[in-house]
Amino acid sequence: MNTTRTGQVIPPKILRAIDHVRRNFPTVDLVVFNAQGDWFYASEDFEGVNFANAPIDDSILEDAATEAKMTAGFPSVFQAYTVDL
């Protein structure tokens, strides 16, 4: 199960989008959706990424925004993190 630090389950399309962005930007672990549904993917230190030349599939990010709107509403923030075992 994929959870946030507070134990909340991250909706699957949002987790898929974070993982998709991580393939090109390994430090990304959160996404912020503003009141209009625009997204900002960033590291825990809030360092954003530039998608200009990266092979990012916008449809995956759009699906995540739709799921965020339906599950948490806008604005919202989701953070996924890796636990080393």
Q: How would you state the average pLDDT, rounded?
A: 89
* Helix-strand pattern: HEEHE
Mind telling me the C-alpha Rg?
A: 12 Å
Instruction: Report, as a whole number of angstroms, the end-to-end distance.
Output: 15 Å
What overall geometry do the principal axes of the alpha carbons give?
Answer: globular
Low-confidence stretches: none
| Secondary-structure content class | alpha+beta
Strand order of the largest sheet: 2-1-3
β-strand percent reads 15-25%
Determine the number of helices (DSSP H or I, runs of at least 4 residues).
Answer: 2
Taken together, the total number of domains comes to: 1
Tell me how many strands there are.
3
Main sheet overview: 3 strands, antiparallel
Percent range for helical residues?
A: 25-40%
How does this model look, in words?
By secondary structure, this protein is α+β, with helices and mostly antiparallel strands. The chain has one domain (12-79). The protein contains two helices and three strands; from the N terminus they run αββαβ. It has helices at 12-22, 58-71; strands at residues 28-33, 39-43, 76-79. It has a three-stranded antiparallel sheet, covered by helices on one side. Strand 1 (28-33) and strand 2 (39-43) form a beta hairpin. Helix 1 packs antiparallel against helix 2 (58-71). The model has no long low-confidence stretch (mean pLDDT 89).
